[in-house]
UniProtKB/TrEMBL annotation:
Listed name of the protein: Helix-turn-helix transcriptional regulator
Pfam families on file: HxlR
Keyword field contains NAD: no
Organism expressing this protein natively: Brachybacterium equifaecis
Record lineage: Bacteria, Bacillati, Actinomycetota, Actinomycetes, Micrococcales
Gene3D superfamilies: Winged helix-like DNA-binding domain superfamily/Winged helix DNA-binding domain
Domain spans labelled HTH hxlR-type: 32-131
Amino acid sequence: MALLGVKMVLDTLKQALDKVKGVQVKSYGQLCSIARALDVVGDRWTLLIVRELLIGGALRFGEVQRGLPGIATNLLTQRLRDLETNGVVAREPAPGTPGTPTYRLTERGRALDGVLRELLKWGAPTVPDAPSDAIFQMHWLSQPARFLLADHRPDEPPILIRFGTFDDGFDLTAADGTITVDPCQRDVSPLAGVTGPGPVLVALLQGAMPLPAAIAQGVDVTGDAAALTRVLPAPQASTNVPGQYT
């Protein structure tokens, strides 16, 4: 009977542990704006969800998930729900698709753009040390491109360069001394197209590798390759060039 009693106690404890397994404290409970911000966006995957919505605008659930390889469906659902509750994300019907919602950043959510920009700067020196099997998606490069590239020939007519494809890419426009990036546009023809290995493209945009060396290492440029020289930074001596983010 004693053994039966012990077993019952252990079973009860196991059930209690199962209930709380994976449950996180949702607040640091601190009167500090940093802690309060992390209460909202400090969970794993949350800022990467914000990254996807900054890049893509209004996205369906599956579109967000494609940009977050490795995230579980139920976890993404929970993170989007939390962001919606905290006024960072808004959910609304998809145009022409009844019952299918899209997710977009609210004004408060878009204000996180500056936070991600600082993370780009802080993380730039670590990129060359990423594991060799690190996943790369071309559209992720659109955010560094906004800050690393510049229009060095502003008096020339506007140009559009496409990095990647419609399924995974972005359009970069240089015009009147400014650089803008947008999701790939089907109604425009780019002057040049760029594809290639992630690490080489990162080095190219950071100014750590000249264009001829990048092409020799697998970067493919179609169309007017000279268009790239209008926007690329001058090659640096090192891949550790976070100061290039201006």
